Amino acid sequence: MLTDPQIRAEILSFVQAHKLPIDLEHEYFLLTPEGVESCTEAAGKVCSDGTTHPVYCAYHNFIETGGSVLVYADDPYLEGLACDPGNEHPNGNPSDATIAGGLAHEHSESLTDPELNAWYDARGNEVADKCRSPNPMKEYGEPLGKAPNGASYNEVINSDLYLYQQMWSNQAGECRQRAAESLAVTKLTPRNGPPAGGTTVTITGRGFTSPATVRFGEVAAGEVTVNSPTSITVVSPAGIPRSRIDVTVTTSSGTSPIVKKDRFKYKAH
Question: Could you tell me if 152 and 259 lie in one domain?
Answer without folding.
Answer: no
